[in-house]
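G., the chain you wanted modeled:
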Amino acid sequence: MEALRHAWRVARSPRLRWPRRVVTAFAALGVLACVTWWVAVRAATFPAHLLDKASATSLVVVDANGVLLRQEATSAGTRERWVPLDEISPHLVNATLASEDNAFHDHAGVDWSALARAAWLNVKGGEFGGSTITMQLVRLTAGTPRSLSGKLRQMVLAARLERSLSKREILEQYFNRVYYGNGAWGAEQAARVYFDKRAVNLSIGEAALLAVMPRGPTYYDPFRHRARVMSRRSHILGLMVKHGHLTADDRALAERIALDLERTRPSFRAPHFVELIKERLPSAFQRGATIRTTLDWDLQRHVEVSLGTHLDRLGSRNVTQAALVVLRNSDGAILALVGSKDFHDSAANGAFNAVTARLRPGSTLKPFVYGAAFEIGDTPATIAEDVVLPEDAHQFYSKDVRSHGFARYRESLAGSYNLSAVHTLQRVGMKPVLHKLRTAGLATLDRPDADYDWGLAIGHAETRLLDLAAAFTTFGRAGQPVAPRAVDSATTSDGRSWIEPVVTRDRVFSEEVAYLLFDILSDPDARKPMFGDRVPLNLPFPVALKTGTTKAYTDLWAIGVTREYTVGVWAGNFDGSPTHHVMSTEGATPLVRAAYTAIAARYGDPTAPPRPATIVSGSICPLSGKRPGPHCEHHKRELFITGHIPDATCDWHQLVCGVPAVVYPPAIRSWARFYGRATPPRCEVDDTGAAVSITYPVEGARFLLEPHRPREAQRPPLAALPASPDLQWTIDGEPADRWIPTPGTHRVQVARGDRVDAVTITYE
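Predicted structure as tokens:
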């Protein structure tokens, strides 16, 4: 008992009271600190908008195969591309954790042992932070100051963040926000800047090098301080071995492999196309999104080079600019688009996009005029007059050196005869043709119908190259065009998506009419009367081509179509100055050929649309376009829609004075005389001589009426001797050219002056 009392006295001794109080005070402070930390963490809030992926993501535009075209700067002026953690190399994750926060998966936002170690090392001399990955993420997003209070706030917010996000979410946020120097924010951008590859494809050595930089992007700039960076990289590789992320052999191999470091400039490919993309995107996708486009960068590169080379050749003839677009007909996808020779040439207004500019289309609208004529029953063999320029169109320049007098529609369209096109437009009417053009997507024809005159057929309007190329898909798509589209998909960093739909426009022409137009425009023989061999389109597959040259040679056009692809080209000068007498066949057509050559090399030879079963072949007289008559020297095969083969027999070729001659219709006889075409001889008739004699039909001739042919097309051929244009023919007392055959017996009579002959024929 005495011993217990002694111990009590010793415990209450003044010499031991002070240490006991110190221990008690520290314990109380520890409890208070823990309670304060718990309350602070529970009370802290981390602003959710600071973790918004869109705020840290650039607008990224890639081609159809994932090739980066452009990465727009964010509102903060940085270029960042958000990628999920699965698309970041695990080597980079492991190297970064080994270097910055090896206990990442074990702490709750703050690594107290690391902080204590850093504090001790700082006391001994040096500068060590002890920040975890989570604390660094707080600094990157919340921007805490570099002070004691800032450090404490960083710790509290880090602990709070660990309660809100998983470890994987924290790593994804970190690797998409950390700065790697040289303008590279985020691992994906860093991989592209330093190694021109995606972050998921980083090797061990490359990943270890990137893991060096967040600690001091300027101090560890590999382009300026390579030795310093490589030394730190070697240290990190050692840490990766120490913590079990690598074997010693892996480290040795990574050390031996040379790194191909090259500063990569931000991509700025297909600039006119990307600017067009930005205009078409919904507002919700203007930032913080990845846009996968329809463009094929490999094809784009080829046509850009071809366009530049072509313009260099034509520079001396004042052709300084050109534009080109390639469409895929199946869905309207824009595969290539070049708006000028050089986007960056501000002196030449290079940023101007001629693909979307309103320009005069020249003769490129003519196929729609002839297509409208086919739909009212005309055929490729129909004769178009090419003799008198209508008064309403006299002010328009015609590249024809002379009037052609007449031509079948096939030659008129393939040869781009201006007068024929105007006459055909007058025949069809303005309203139907405007309707066809607008249905095909030419939205620039937005004035009232009355504002357009017959010059529409030869370019008195405005259109855009992109719209015109899309309209021409009509001829490769069986009469139904497709709208151009540029975006395959758009995806924001928060998961929203948008797809530009395929828009098939209303039908413009029937399948048969579309095929006839394609066949005419791809017929090199039909072009030759006008162009000879001056159309440089010698390709091993059929291409329907329409060219156009505007007044004073200012706008040069060429549109090519196959079943699969449409190519549109414009060439000229942005200031509207004329070229030095350059035709579209020289200024634009070679670029169509270059584009199709590149298309064939990349995708295989394009093809022609399939011929509909309702397209049939028939024999015609190549001069009159009618069925060959007994005096036609030549026959030619032509294509027709079933039921539209000409019924009338050629009456241009006749026997006059016993010799073969061409008797032109009255509308073109003056043209024939003016241009020295042979005219039928005037037969010398002896007034006291023999009477006129009918040589055909013969007396008693019998004709069978065909029920499927119009009656007026079944009149009998007429011939007499001596042949003369002055012969007057009647049947049953009516002028022969107005008589309608009926079953029965009929009297055919010819008269010249007072000389008359007659025969009797029968129709059954």
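The CA atoms of residues 555 and 681 lie 47 Å apart.

Shout if anything looks off.
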